[in-house]
Amino acid sequence: MRKLELHWQILIAIVLAGIVGGYVHNVQSSTGVDPTIGGITFIAIFEYVGTIFLNALRMIIVPLIMSSIIVGVAGIGSGGNLGSLGGKTLLFYATTTLAAILVGLVLINAVGPGYVNGEPAKDLLALEASTEELAASVAGKGPGDVAKVFQRMVPPNIVAAAVEGQMLGIIFFAILFGYFMTKLDNQYAEPLYRFWDAVFHVMMRMTEWIMKFAPIGVFGLVAGVIARAGYKATGPLAVFAVVVLVALALHAFITLPLLLRFVGRVDPIKTLRGAAKAMLTAFSTASSSATLPVTMECVEDNIGVSNKVSSFVLPLGATVNMNGTALYECAAAMFIAQAYGLELTFGVQFSIVVIALMTSIGVAGVPSASLVAIAIILGAIGLPIEALGVLLVFDRILDMARTSINVWGDASCATIVARLEGETTNVAIGDAAKEAA
Hints:
- By secondary structure, the chain is mostly helical.
- It has a single domain, classed as Proton glutamate symport protein (Orthogonal Bundle).
- A hairpin with a 2-residue loop joins strand 1 and strand 2.
- The protein is globular, with a radius of gyration of 22 Å.
- The termini are far apart.
- The C terminus is likely disordered.
């Protein structure tokens, strides 16, 4: 018998959580007493299950991010890849990811989905932490100005930074470590690379294993939210989901097409049609890594990019280019801050942008793995990671959408880099007739 796919398991878990959580909330509202089983309240059981899942995500954050970034940077910097092709690829990936984050940041600030009728949605979402305590925490952890963001990137003690969850410092250290690995003689660099590559693969296996329990964890977290707040909690979450989808659409159909048209000198509509199969596959699987073979096929056969470019740009993009994911990470952190009624300064928002940009590099290309990155951002700016649970109601559809945008960004980059490298493609404009011929 064929095993049910993970995304269907998660969707079923969300539906069941809504039903069970709603029942518990109704019983509590009508009787004034929390329903129990074996003397333990249902809400306590939900929170217990959800906490274990969140703790598992916390457990893998530091080794996963460190190993993935070290291996990624060392791999990019070796073999002469950081030449013309590598430089253009990395510049494009950094530019589009930053653009995506800013689109999400502007839209979330403009719409304010974390507020309902001008009031923070904290109570509607059953968020329990004290706003005053969080404001003090954010004031302590969030830098008061941009200069302090960069100061926090250089920790005096990397071990202490790991213990305290100072991810900016850990990420910066990992980037430096990976870069200087490429400067060593092969006899020293090779064992180091094999070690960190092995750690990365172990952490990927652990991530995949933890995500197998995601339906149970999601059930506990979502059921806990619904049991406490009732179905009214879905209101601000639905608005947040719509805002994120609109932001993703703006990036996909305005930002990237403008770059394709004016930098790559290609027809954005033809390019989009060429990449459509890969985007649909990414939407259905919510995994950029699993979609990679389809992406390469579309980019080479439909768009006309050479294997030389696609074989370098696309695998790298599946690892480090997460436009949609970075946008969502930033939007999610801002939404939770709004729900708590926190006024985040420019410096704190800048730190969110920087962390979202950097952590998007280390996000595993598997379904819902961005939850790890969101947990990093929340912890870095002083927000409770437990608030992550409220995002899971609509996370599956948003995960599918942002993965599709990730793949569209990879295909766009491959097309633009190919054109900048002097290649002809099937979607070029200007001399398109000659090139097609």
